[in-house]
């Protein structure tokens, strides 16, 4: 899970355009990326949350090595004030294989 905070409204709009581009590339090219969901945060117009679920660590590493991911990581820096990353490990849930 990743929480992004954009610098201002113009940066948020540019970040959303950048996000749309990477999501399309992920859909087309990353079968090991099971879920890549981007969210607006109610009451926090400059925040975005991504929830990402990968088949395994290899799928995550493959995602990170993609040209479109590298472009996203480099382009986002000028638009953001902070990035918070949490790696989650499933404890229990519905709709999971564990």
UniProtKB/TrEMBL annotation:
PROSITE patterns: ABM. One of its GO terms (molecular function) is monooxygenase activity. Keywords: Monooxygenase, Oxidoreductase. Residues 1-90 form the ABM domain. It comes from the Bacteria. This is Quinol monooxygenase YgiN.
